What we know:
This protein is of the alpha/beta class. The chain contains 17 helices and 18 strands. The strands form four sheets. Strands 1, 2, 9, 10, 11, 12 and 18 form a seven-stranded mixed beta sheet that branches. A seven-stranded mixed beta sheet has the order 7-6-14-15-16-13-17, sandwiched between helices. Helix 1 runs parallel beside helix 17, helix 4 (about 125-150) runs antiparallel to helix 5 (about 170-180) and helix 8 packs across helix 13. The longest helix is centred in the N-terminal third of the chain and has 26 residues, at about 125-150. The chain is globular. Mean pLDDT is about 90; it is low at about 1-10.
Amino acid sequence: MEKSTSVQNNREKTFDVIVVGGGHNGLVAAGYLAKAGRKVLVLEKRQVVGGAAVTEEFFPGFKFSSLADGSGSLSPEIVSDLKLTEHGLQILPADPLIVSLLDDGKNLTLWHDTDRTVQEIAEFSAADAESYPRFIERMEKISRIVAEMNHLVPPDVPDLGFFDLTNFKGFINPVRGLGWRHIAQVVRLLPMSVADVLNEWFESEYVIGAIASSAILNTSFGPQEINSTAYAFLRNWSLSNNGLFRSSGQVKGGMGALTQALADAAQSMGASILTDSGVAKIGFQDGRVTGVTLVNGDRYSAKTIISAADMRTTFLKLIDPYYLDAKFIERVRNIKYRGTMARMHFALDGLPTFSGIGGDSQRLSGHVQIAPTIEYLQKASDAAKYGNHSTQPYLDIQIPTLTDSSLAPAGRHILSATVKYMPYTLRDGNWEELRETTGGLVVDTLSAYAPDFNECILHEKLITPLELEQNYTLPEGCPVHGDMALDQFMWMRPIPGYAQYRGPIDGLYMCSAATHPGGGVTGINGKNAAQQVLSD
Length: 536
């Protein structure tokens, strides 16, 4: 477990900026503001910083990335600006990118090396093997445009003026690289389903299923549904750390080591951090913020406050909505979350033997997924649409100890799985009643591909969608603070008219995953918000 970052007996009561919430975006904002010479205080209600990007020792000697996993998609620019490698951040490479487990002991492995992946695909389709390099080249160019969008401060539509258009100058270079004649294709792709996009390039259901899964990690929709999945696919590609459609690698020490590096960097620049310090109220007077009151009654003053909490917490709990515009509150209440994710962690006595892979530790060191076909994924999502948990879940699995043996006792392993589709809002029953059923379902699903899996289990822990909300403050179990869909992106994120990180009260700013560019451990939200504070 990461070390405590509490600043004990802090007698300072007045700061330039107070950051509410010590998740990765809050820590990034604090780092940039402290670097710029501002006197910054970060207040985190849990005993450790990190939010959803934490490492926790659920069983003695076994350390897990509780929610966010892998290496995240932290912006390289942020790593450089805040000198995170000097504060202990270390990314351990992992190859392959994906191993998709199929029926009858078969698997499809997608490597970082395109030629090697082509050889794997050729076993399923010669035509798809020929298409894959062209697909990678074309989509990588398109993703550059989305990458530029990620770093822009969106215009506040409908109040769009001439000078707001200059915010889009960052599009010019990637558009030139793609070629102006292809722009119509970009516009066409965004609202499509990822299934329709991939069907235009590939014929094998296994190839399509292996790639499509990367579109549904941060959305409640299935791969055959329009409105979000093609956009989510391109967005995930634009944020990856390897130029492909999925980030890869592991943070040494788990995801908590990443946020610990952010905390250490912010503190080295002069920021103060208080853990176990939940904020009860954001104060304001005469239309401007004045400071915060903690749950324990302590008060801290500042003329600028940045909330890294979700919109509901910020504007329905920390601020009395009575004092805010009714239309603003209505839009906050109407943000769509639709959490459909659970997380399950296993402490293992040894490495399971996966059919067709055996004990090939390298092949198992990337993302191992149970998403054999697009139909499998769509059927899994269909259940959630009607308030039912999927009985054939999509599992995104990692065995981090194959890359970082420090996470478990010698000779033992941990295995973590993101489990979809498990809806926060159930039609029948509740999550406490479904806990045992869901845990058994995950074990049975894994055992179908690794027959000795059950024999390897020492301990297991399921984190339900309800616990994502209760324990990690993720509204409706949604890790991205609002479904990643086209009606909730760019200038419509978090709500129309408030896309530029400023809140409805002078001096109040927002930097959580609810803001542009959305979820994922990128830190871009925090950086953009900090720069907006400094420019103001």
